Amino acid sequence: MSFNIIMFYLFSAIILVFSLLTITSRRILRAAVYLLFVLIATAGLYFLLEYQFMAAVQLTLYAGGIVVLIIFSILLTHHISHRFKHPDLTKMIMGIAVAVVGSALTIYTILTYPFPQTITVTELPATMENIGMQLLGVEKNGYVLPFELISILLLAAMVAAIIVAKKGNDKNAEI
Amino acid sequence: MTPNLYDFSTLTGAIHEWLSGMMSPGWVTFTELVLIGLLFLLFFALLGLFLVYLERKVCAIIQNRVGPNRVGKWGLLQTIADLIKLLIKELIPIRKSDKFLFNLAPFIVIIASLMAMAALPFAKGLQAIDFNIGVFYVMAVSSLGVVGILLAGWSSNSKYSLIGAMRSGAQIVSYELSVGLSLLAIVVFSGSMQLSTIIESQADGWWLFKGHIPAFIAFIVFLIASTAEINRGPFDLAEAESELTAGFHTEYSGIKFAFFFLAEYINMFIVAAIAATVFLGGWMPLHIGNWEGFNQVMDFIPSIVWFFVKTFFIIYVIMWFKWTFPRLRIDQLLTLEWKYLLPVSLVNIVLIAFLVLMGWHF
Question: Exposed, middle or buried, B252 (CB in 10 Å: 0-12/13-18/19+)?
Answer without folding.
Answer: buried
